[in-house]
Amino acid sequence: MPSLATLRSRELDPQTFIPYVRHVDRSTLALDSRALMVMIALEGVSFETADVLDLNALHRDLNTLYRNIADERLAAWTHLIRRRDTSYPEGTFTTPFSKALNDKYRARMVDEDLFRNDLYLA
Predict the structure, then answer these.
(1) Measured between alpha carbons, how far is 102 from 107 in angstroms, rounded to an integer?
(2) CB burial class (10 A; 0-12, 13-18, 19+) of residue 71?
């Protein structure tokens, strides 16, 4: 079995996998390919509960955005970070039924593993 020093010498430096060179400004990174990268946190829409007309409008707007920014020098990458989250969202309820339903659902979910999906665009 190889020694620990031998195994360490075979490891590649982080720079091999992480192309960041420096910060250009507060929100822009320079890459080793001389390209620039900006990371943006996105807020989303829960498509499972959205109205079909709203979803179609969002798809149309997104398609228009893609056509307007199309350039051979532009690349867009999405990153989904899924993490455990124990917070339950607060809400205001206008009827006693909706408040009671939320209270029961919260009591049921308190022992469950809750997760949050954070979406980033680079």
Answers:
(1) 9
(2) exposed
Answer yes or no: pTM beyond 0.85.
Answer: no
Burial class (CB in 10 A: 0-12, 13-18, 19+), 118: middle
CB 120 within 8 A of CB 42: yes
HSE, CB side, 13 Å, CA atoms: give it for residue 94.
Answer: 0
Q: Are 79 and 117 in contact (CB under 8 A)?
A: no
Contact call for residues 54 and 90 (beta carbons, < 8 A): no
- How does pLDDT run along the chain (122 residues), one tens digit per residue? 788 888 888 888 887 888 899 999 998 999 999 999 999 998 877 777 889 999 999 999 999 999 999 999 899 999 999 999 888 888 899 999 999 999 999 998 888 888 888 999 99
Neighbouring residues of 45: CB distance < 8 A, sequence distance ≥ 6: 54, 55, 58
Give the three-class secondary structure for 82: strand
